[in-house]
Amino acid sequence: MAYVLVPKDLNAVKTKVLFNLTKRQLICFGCGALIGVPLFFILKTRIAVSGAAICMMLVMMPAFLLGVYEKNGQPLEKILRNIVQTAFLRPKLRPYSTDNFYTVLQRQDDLDKEVGRIIKKTDSLSLPNPSPGCVPHSVKYRREVKNIVSGEKTHKC
Q: What separation in angstroms does the CA of 88 have from each of 75, 76, 93, 120?
């Protein structure tokens, strides 16, 4: 009886398209070949064949690495992006800080108490009755109310 090994994690199984290669590998190998093969034929006329072959391999190597290399389920470009972010873009020191919900509640309670004190203070003060020619929303009336709240002497409209 024949046995077939079935992996436990089916997410790790990748669909093979052609020549037992995935789509990603085919695209990367194709891009590398599109760059490297013409370069080989151009360089072959100017330098030795072995030198042209070495140049072709060096130019094609990054494309092959992008297609094949994978670590912890992440392809090479994601790994390189993470390295660049941690080395150059993000701050070097990242201090640990928590958002303490109790302090937020305490601040809100303090603000509520302060608003309550201000309301009690303005209720205890008597606002002036505007004279017949003075509109309650005028600048002078607002100035009088502000002066009463701040404790300064007021003048009538």
A: 20, 18, 12, 55
